[in-house]
Recover the amino acids of this structure.
């Protein structure tokens, strides 16, 4: 069995947003929508800082779907549109999605967006991987862990494009994989562990 997961080095993250834009381009994510975000911790603005001058600090939290082992979103989906696939990724079947947004309410990571209108792309057409399915008005969408790329044995685009090498991707069920070794040796942690969702995305410093 394979269980895909990721580990993100927060110390290496410089908040450049390359992962967020690479994700948009790979997955043809519409205008004003982001599957992958980089938050400034403790702030409500991009590139904010904590403290008072000259004693300021700034840390970043890259955030997307956590591809939980026990996903809250899947439990509440009434149609089975949200599901876990054979690689451990949490995915959405857009043809089954009825737009009830129960998954969005259940997700403790605020990791989904909803298409209230027909998606608008700039420069006016769908870009990205030709195998990525188009999303329409009335469906929820989110990070797929670049399913089309990872099905081909490639890394997610955010991992490939990070200029600081802050992301490690691989099989969590293989103790010899790089991601498993990082989690075991770098005291990696999960977001909101108390929720019992058991994310397959880890953070370390």
């Amino acid at each position: 069995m394979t269980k895909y997961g990721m580990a993100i080095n927060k110390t290496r993250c410089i908040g450049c947003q390359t992962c967020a834009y690479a994700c948009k381009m790979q997955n043809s994510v519409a205008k004003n929508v982001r599957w992958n975000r980089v938050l400034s911790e403790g702030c409500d603005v991009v590139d904010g800082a904590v403290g008072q001058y000259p004693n300021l600090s700034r840390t970043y939290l890259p955030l997307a779907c956590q591809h939980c082992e026990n996903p809250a979103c899947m439990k509440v989906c009434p149609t089975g549109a949200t599901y876990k696939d054979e690689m451990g990724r949490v995915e959405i079947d857009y043809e089954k999605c009825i737009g009830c947004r129960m998954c969005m309410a259940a997700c403790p990571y605020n990791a989904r967006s909803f298409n209230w209108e027909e998606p608008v792309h700039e420069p006016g057409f769908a870009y990205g991987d030709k195998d990525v399915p188009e999303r329409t008005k009335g469906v929820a969408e989110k990070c797929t862990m670049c399913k089309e790329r990872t099905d081909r044995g490639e890394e997610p685009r955010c991992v490939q494009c990070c200029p600081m090498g802050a992301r490690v991707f691989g099989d969590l069920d293989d103790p010899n994989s790089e991601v498993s070794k990082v989690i075991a040796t770098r005291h990696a942690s999960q977001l909101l562990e108390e929720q019992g969702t058991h994310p397959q995305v880890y953070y370390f410093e």
